[in-house]
Amino acid sequence: FYWEQTGIKKEIMKEYDFIRELGTGNFSVVYEGINKINGKRVAIKYINLKKFQSEPVKFHLQLNREIEILKMVSHENIISIQDIFYIDSEQQLFFILDLADGGELYDKIGYDRPLLNELEAKYVFKQILEAVLYLHNRGIAHRDLKPENILFIDDKNDPLKIKITDFGLARFINEGELARTLCGSPLYVAPEVIVSRTSCTTIPVNGYGKTCDAWSLGAILYIILSGTPPFDDDTDEEMLSTPKLFQQIVSGSYRFPERNWASISKLALDLVVKLLTVDPNQRYTIAQALNHPWITSSFPSS
Ligand code: ADP
Ligand code: MG
């Protein structure tokens, strides 16, 4: 594994001060840090490998993929990695990442009422599409696109500038190849991802490709435009992994309630439908989405 290479740096405390906690995920804690030499602020993602004792090989392989992909990508809307530290005696791994401390897109959803207007939503969504197109063109599926993993960089000149982060579930999926792992967040997971693991449906698939990301983006667009998720309108946490939610997803049972969608343009709604298409072969690709008239036109129109 990458962190077992000789020469990997160990003395993070000599190079960085830890300032505050920025956020947590399933397997990590992310801190703001300052480079002691040049004073630059960074994000430090801390992963404790001891936590993976239940299934170490699986997690270590995935972590290795996360590093490989982070080191390879370079795009203005994707968080990049600057350095890696590993303290072997403590099994502690640290990624030094670009800092994006303007909050998560998640904080801009609002409850039942979107906090971004349609033009702002378009501006944010286009950047997400560009980042994901870059990944897909390199054979990378992110597999965990959701508002929690899209961060604002807090640029005064460009307050809605975003970067996508968290390649903790990302992998290469070559043309003609299929992935099978059921992963991602239940609210944003594509039907074929669910189906590849369960036999609950009629869609004949035995795996999935990069298009699973296009579905997740459809769910993200739905939620930022309307303030509500497409498939779970009661906020019951219990429901999030139930067969009922998965059943709704695989059958594509979502609606556009007048209450939330009355003021949204028909074009925006059309792009949501093109992305939230159950059959992955009929679904819009990211490139098609970037050419959709809602994205290419400057102003909301109906
Ligand atoms: P996990 O793989 O455990 O889900 P993430 O990479 O998603 O970890 O990071 C967890 C949280 O930490 C994010 O949701 C976000 O709030 C915060 N975070 C992650 N990376 C950065 C960053 N580069 N700048 C600022 N905050 C970040
Ligand atoms: Mg995360």
Automatic annotation (TrEMBL):
It comes from Polysphondylium violaceum. It catalyses: L-seryl-[protein] + ATP = O-phospho-L-seryl-[protein] + ADP + H(+); L-threonyl-[protein] + ATP = O-phospho-L-threonyl-[protein] + ADP + H(+). The keyword Transferase applies. Signal peptide: none annotated. The keyword ATP-binding applies. One of its GO terms (molecular function) is protein serine/threonine kinase activity. It is an enzyme of class 2 (transferase). Belongs to the protein kinase superfamily. Its EC number is 2.7.11.1. Keywords: ATP-binding, Kinase, Nucleotide-binding, Serine/threonine-protein kinase, Transferase. ATP binds at K45. Residues 16-295 form the Protein kinase domain. It comes from the Eukaryota. This is non-specific serine/threonine protein kinase.
